[in-house]
Amino acid sequence: MGSSFEVLPRGCHLGWAAGRIGSGVFGVAWSTRTGRNRARAVPADERYDVTLPLRERPAELPPEEIARLQSLCESLAREAGDLVRDRSGAVIAVADTKSSVNDVVTAVDREVEELLRARIRAERPGDAFLGEEEGASAGTTGLTWVVDPIDGTVNFLYGIPSYAVSVAVVAGEPDPRRWTPLAGCVHAVSTGATWTAGRGQGAFRDGARLRIKDAPPLGQALVGTGFGYTEERRRGQAEVVAQLLPQVRDIRRLGSVAIDLCLVADGRLDAHYERGLNPWDVAAGTLVVLEAGGVVQGLAGEPASKAMTVAGPAGLVAELSAALEAAGARELGHPDGETGR
């Protein structure tokens, strides 16, 4: 047991604070080397607003179990995609809004999440569940299913063919700074393209193994991004884009970060950056990038968080992160209240 991992008290909020210094919030980390608790500053804009009782982290899973979980992720995502496809022919209406009037939910989002919740409950009754629309339910195994029923809901609402079902299973808390991703699948509903990954088993698109391409110079990079839904957030993001655009080949905003991350893994985008992402936005796509040989991190080599997520080949991520910081990305407003797509 040579590595360290972070834990929070049983039943606590993932943004739990043991104390404050300025705007920072302390979390608690446990070092397996020392056996002592130690405080770690967790800035408020890195925290994920998720409540889920903590369970013991499971023992390392054997490759055959990872493969079974990967297969289950894919079958669940494909079944959910069939339901989305069936519903796409009907008139789609906004059922609710979240952080702003532009941050929409449809009845199909909720129906698909309920399907996934029911299927996972039947297949894996002891596992926890975290979905974008209905939140978290606790489990007993230390594994959590992290689901986005439709990543790219606005595209779905308008009939733009860039939206996906994202299904992943992680060990530990449903917090990208703390979890260990085990398996995941992103299924692009309109095109049928399906990306899968398993921890230590590689990343695939429609069964073909992926390997992230070599990093181009920043000036030759095609970069994906996404925008928040509030007026203040968008104004700040537009200022960053205005400074970044002259430094890169071009910028794409496709509307589904799950698909964008997979496009990075298979070389159709060189990198992706975004602020304000939630666990369900990145759970499956991040593993696809990592298993394809890429990196996913925040600014200046920090862990990816709601404050910033940057994905791509290592050299380009470092160069892009520096450009984003110079453009003022770190000074953007607090990302809480943004809910992803």
UniProtKB/TrEMBL annotation:
Native organism taxonomy: Bacteria, Bacillati, Actinomycetota, Actinomycetes, Micrococcales
Name the UniProt record assigns to this protein: Inositol-1-monophosphatase
GO MF terms, alphabetically ordered: inositol monophosphate 1-phosphatase activity; metal ion binding
Highest taxon of source: Bacteria
Protein family (similarity comment): Belongs to the inositol monophosphatase superfamily.
InterPro entries: IMPase (IPR033942), Inositol_monoP_metal-BS (IPR020583), Inositol_monophosphatase-like (IPR000760), Inositol_monophosphatase_CS (IPR020550)
CDD domains according to UniProt: IMPase
Any GO BP annotation: inositol metabolic process
The enzyme's E.C. designation: 3.1.3.25
Cofactor list: Mg(2+)
Keywords: Hydrolase, Magnesium, Metal-binding
Organism of derivation: Georgenia thermotolerans
Catalytic function, reaction form: a myo-inositol phosphate + H2O = myo-inositol + phosphate
List of residues binding Mg(2+): E132, D148, I150, D151, D281
Nucleotidyltransferase in keyword set: no
Membrane spanning residue stretches: none
